[in-house]
Task: inverse folding
């Protein structure tokens, strides 16, 4: 299957023959919207939602002046992007708070990631110095209670469980427990269920009326397809959910389901879950999601991660070194560390527009273990050697190889790579004022 | 319920819905451009990929023209044929024993539940089954599998959380050889296909099977959640590149999702669908039946 080339690329292709400037006309818009439609459908946006969206965007685009700084393709992408962002609502809605304990109830299909999310949310609240209690109401799936207990232990929060009893009773008792022991939050884990399973949906309604939650969060797998509308609509109609959490966004799904969900429920998407670690919970950013749905990469997240990982001082230091051409192996390793702080290399690659797929297709994989070996080699050098690799003769290299558990060839390889990086940086420096 | 009864009744829910759409499609009484456009949308809304949907519609257009089809029934019949032919491009799979079945997939698709049902399915057919709890990552995964092993009344080989999954595989193979088990089913941790290190771990497990049990027939089945959208294709492609996939198990077909993406997979990657999961009970699993599946979609 073809690599998905970004929407802007496709649109550029359509508009390539056009040189005229001025207003976007009907024919051009129709051509462009055909591509937009495919892009959205390939991203799993529900077809009915796509149709409505295309109609409203076409109307907006018709007769718009093409900005001087933009090509017609960019102009269309801009309009589409803005509309998508607007549709997905405001930035990171906050959690509702009630008189303690604030009750948060989870719901969703099987395998959406509710139990893991409970742990993430508890840890998130704990970091804000709030005391959260996890209540185990999934009495159906084998070992679900155990899973919640392990997750709770990892997050360092208490788990309330009464075995495989009646979930409505357990929820009620759990909330009472939270009240008497001064918890700020009570998070209720419920069993995954099909939206068409009437008995189990009624059970959720009963839990709701028993504990009166401030938040009912619908957990949705971001890889969900066209059916997302049916699922979200049914859960919302029966429970009047207060918000949505998107899970498994660390994959390469374009996540169009969230647009469908937003449209049919009108409820805010409050968080996105981006990994298997309990700290992998982020606020939801509509603008980033819009770019992702359109296949344009998540540049904003990447920039933000870089900013978090590299301090201003480090950046300045690096710039100075580049100017003076005094970049050493010590700096080399510092760079590796900085990049590593941004997360796994695959995640980073995935955020670069057009890179995620190409990266995957080429079969080239960044081996994190290799980086560890590089680090071992550099750490096995003396400070003098790190600052001036030119002094490395064969006996020094042999010592380093031994010390790092590698071979002389690997040491040589590293030195070669280092020289290449230095060259590359020189070129970059000459090209423009290079800042990391 | 009969052999194919369950998959049929599971798909019937979706069938009712789609049939509604179809009668609406035909209600205009003409097979015109608008009809084809709407048909494409119907196909897409069952999660058949945009490209495959376009191809199917193109193909139908040709057949309608060539065979001078004018009746609605004829159109439906031709459409079903196209779908069936596409799916049947993937040759169906006959599992030979002794078999090692490694069950892989992304998080939350239902691997552990499927293994429980599969173990029961084989053991009901008087075959001896051992399951290996090689998901040593997810909290309480082996507890969950243990419950299923008890329900299916089969032996389970497990290790502590956080241990090397390949070592669990190794132990299970030793046990399967000693007990002369017909089927060894290996549960693996859910992993997103974009995580290179986790895919490496999977390759290692796969190598362990090949090295330690060369005389067994080794099958790698990917579990796909019917609720998934276009990403299912990425999943199959990447897992296929990593370890090679012999078949698909399509789960959660008892909801309203149709799992239409398998049409593209069978058609383009030629990976067959082997089993279908239709619920949470022990016997909610069936062999895949093309006719029923296509009838369910249309």
Result:
């Amino acid at each position: 299957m073809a690599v998905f080339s970004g929407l802007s690329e496709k649109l550029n292709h359509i508009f390539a023959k056009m040189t005229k400037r001025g207003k976007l006309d009907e024919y051009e818009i129709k051509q462009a919207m055909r591509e937009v439609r495919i892009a959205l459908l390939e991203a799993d946006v529900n077809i009915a939602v796509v149709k409505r969206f295309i109609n409203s965007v076409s109307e907006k685009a018709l007769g718009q002046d093409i900005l001087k700084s933009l090509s017609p393709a960019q102009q269309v992408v801009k309009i589409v992007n803005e509309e998508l962002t607007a549709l997905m609502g405001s930035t990171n809605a906050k959690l509702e708070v009630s008189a303690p304990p604030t009750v948060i109830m989870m719901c969703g299909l099987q395998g959406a990631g509710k139990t893991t999310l409970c742990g993430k949310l508890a840890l998130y609240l704990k970091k804000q110095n709030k005391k959260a209690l996890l209540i185990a109401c999934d009495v159906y799936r084998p070992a679900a209670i155990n899973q919640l207990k392990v997750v709770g232990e990892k997050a360092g929060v208490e788990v309330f469980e009464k075995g495989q009893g009646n979930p409505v009773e357990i929820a009620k008792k759990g909330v009472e427990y939270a009240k008497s022991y001064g918890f700020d939050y009570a998070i209720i884990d419920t069993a995954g269920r099909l939206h068409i399973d009437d008995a189990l949906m009624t059970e959720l309604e009963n839990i709701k009326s028993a504990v009166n939650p401030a938040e009912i969060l619908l957990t949705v797998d971001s890889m969900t397809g066209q059916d997302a509308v049916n699922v979200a609509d049914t859960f919302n109609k029966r429970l009047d959910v207060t918000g949505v959490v998107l899970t498994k966004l660390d994959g390469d799904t374009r996540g169009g389901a969230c647009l469908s969900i937003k449209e049919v429920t009108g409820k805010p998407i409050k968080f996105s879950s981006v990994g298997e670690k309990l700290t992998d919970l982020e606020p939801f950013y509509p603008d980033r999601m819009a770019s992702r749905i359109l296949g344009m990469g998540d540049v904003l997240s990447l920039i933000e991660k870089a900013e978090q990982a590299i301090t201003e001082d480090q950046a300045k230091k690096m710039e100075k070194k580049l100017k003076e051409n005094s970049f050493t192996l010590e700096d080399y390793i510092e760079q590796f560390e900085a990049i590593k702080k941004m997360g796994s290399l695959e995640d980073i690659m995935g955020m670069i527009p057009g890179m995620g797929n190409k990266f995957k297709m080429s079969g080239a994989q960044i081996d994190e273990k290799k980086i560890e070996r590089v680090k071992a080699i550099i750490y096995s050098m003396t400070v003098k050697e790190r600052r001036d690799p030119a002094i490395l003769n064969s006996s020094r290299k042999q010592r380093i190889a031994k010390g790092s558990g590698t071979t002389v060839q690997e040491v040589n390889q590293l030195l070669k790579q280092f020289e290449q990086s230095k060259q590359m940086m020189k070129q970059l420096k000459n090209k423009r004022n290079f800042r990391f | 319920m009969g052999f194919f009864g369950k998959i049929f009744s599971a798909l019937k829910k979706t069938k009712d819905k789609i049939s509604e759409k179809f009668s609406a499609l035909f209600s205009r009484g003409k097979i015109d451009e608008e009809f084809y456009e709407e048909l494409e949308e119907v196909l897409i809304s069952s999660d058949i990929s945009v490209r495959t949907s376009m191809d199917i519609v193109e193909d139908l257009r040709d057949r309608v023209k060539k065979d001078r089809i004018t009746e609605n029934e004829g159109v439906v019949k031709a459409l079903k044929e196209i779908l069936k032919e596409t799916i049947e491009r993937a040759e169906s799979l006959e599992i030979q024993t002794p078999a090692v079945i490694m069950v892989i997939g992304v998080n939350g698709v239902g691997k552990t539940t499927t293994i429980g049902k599969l173990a029961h399915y084989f053991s009901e057919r008087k075959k001896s089954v051992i399951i290996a709890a090689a998901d040593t990552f997810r909290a309480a995964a082996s507890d969950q599998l243990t419950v299923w092993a008890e329900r299916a009344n089969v032996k389970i080989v497990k290790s502590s959380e956080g241990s090397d999954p390949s070592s669990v595989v190794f132990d299970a193979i030793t046990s399967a050889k000693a007990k002369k088990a017909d089927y060894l089913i290996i549960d693996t941790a859910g992993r997103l296909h974009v995580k290179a290190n986790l895919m490496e771990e999977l390759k290692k497990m796969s190598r362990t099977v090949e090295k330690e049990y060369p005389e067994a027939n080794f099958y790698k089945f990917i579990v796909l959640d019917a609720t998934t959208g276009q990403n299912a294709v990425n999943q199959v492609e990447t897992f296929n590149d990593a370890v090679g996939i012999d078949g698909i198990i399509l789960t959660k077909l008892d909801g309203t999702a149709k799992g239409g993406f398998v049409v593209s997979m069978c058609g383009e990657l030629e990976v067959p669908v082997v089993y279908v999961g239709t619920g949470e009970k022990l016997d909610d699993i069936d062999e895949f039946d093309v006719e029923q599946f296509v009838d369910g979609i249309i």
